[in-house]
Amino acid sequence: MKFSYRExxxxxxxxxxxxxxxxxxxxxxxxxRKHLNVFLSVFNEEALKKADEIDYKIKSGYAGRLAGMVxxxxxxxxxxxxxxxCASKMLENFEAVYTATAVQRLIDEDVIIIGKTNCDxxxxxSSNENSAFGAVLNPADESRVAGGSSGGSAAAVxxxxxxxxxxxxxGGSIRQPAAFCGVIGLKPTYGRVSRYGLTAFASSFDTIGxxxxxxxxxxxxxxxxxxxxxxxSTSVSDVTDFKAEDIENIDLNNLRIGVxxxxxxxxxxxxIRDKIKEVxxxxxxxxxxxxxxxxxxxxxxxxxxxxxxxxxASSNLARYDGARYGYRSPxxxxxxxxxxxxxxEGFGEEVKRRIMLGTYVLSAGYYDAYYRKAQKVRRLIKxxxxxxFEEVDLLLTPSTPTTAFRIGEKTTxxxxxxxxxxxxxxxxxxxxxxxxxxVGWDKEKLPIGIQLTARDFDEKTALAAxxxxxxxxxx
Length: 475
Ligand code: GLN
What we know:
This protein is an alpha/beta fold. It is built from 15 helices and 13 strands. It has helices at 5-14, 19-32, 44-60, 101-108, 151-158, 175-181, 215-225, 270-285, 301-316, 335-346, 349-362, 367-391, 414-419, 425-430, 459-471; strands spanning 39-42, 70-74, 112-117, 137-138, 141-145, 164-169, 184-187, 207-212, 256-260, 289-293, 394-398, 434-441, 447-454. A hairpin with a 5-residue loop joins strand 12 and strand 13 (447-454).
């Protein structure tokens, strides 16, 4: 199913195909490549039943704006009555009691949800190897990781198991797997999409966004998910300005693209650097203005990110105590033992590492040295972006330092793994929207992604430029 939603919708409206046919074909793909370990649950019967309902709605002429779009959602998003494991043993048998706002808004426009995708445990990771249910294999090369934490979402789109997948991005978890799997992934501005129903990892960083293959599909899904939600006090009310069709009317002439000096240095895979240079040259040839910009504090992004997100995670994950819901150790003699054993047995290594790190940076003696200082650096990073966007409209950077690495290659060295997030965490620290798009392959035929970062709430410029790049013969 290579076409975009707009093309599909024409075929559905004209009766050339049906939602049932579309769903069946995706279900076949899911079955054929089960070994990729992309889904944690698949809604076979239900998706087909929903397809029939929507086929009827289409015939009757009152179908929603996303009728027949088949999507999957990352298993950290709530869907009422369905399991939500967060890829953790802690929530292996947990059933969601309500539906996330972002998901509900798509359901209201008649999407069909085909299943829930695998990810790193509680969205902590860059390779999907931290899932309690095993890694996702990269559809482009099965010996490699799909990226993380939304590895299942990226692989689902790449392997044509659905049209769109909803992922979450706290430090790159949409963009990095999108780059590794060769699809588009958008992290919206913090506050544009309600976080209600997204299992909290680091609340001041967490965002929900789409992965897909077509820019307009991504824009449409974003438009529908966006907007104020009284259930998320950080959701912003004046974002209704965003309309998917706007991206087609943006004049890219004289658009100023900033190339971040600090990001093209050491540690970047040469083929990614070459690709960026090629894209830059071609944009310059097409009349866009290319400027070199400097964001000096970006070099502290990883440290700052891993101090602040672990601090928030240590607090957010305190709720999994074996008492109210989730895993409870069979060895729970008294309350204290129940807490200790349930958490020790229920959480995986990486989640425990982060809870301990977060507890440490928040502890009385170290709070000023780490947490408070990191908050200050976060502000300096935001200021870097504000300053850069006085000179340019978009920043063009790599999405990842390398293409997809081999399964097992980095599991013994957490710091190596964290370094993968070098280009993505800054947008979460600053809150800005950023998109990763596929622009070609390295010599091993692994996808290369580049990232465009925009001003707050200016997703449309990033999407329009991304569309332009994708339509030009870059790949
Ligand atoms: N890889 C990053 C981390 O491990 C990002 C995770 C995310 O965005 N959810 O924290």
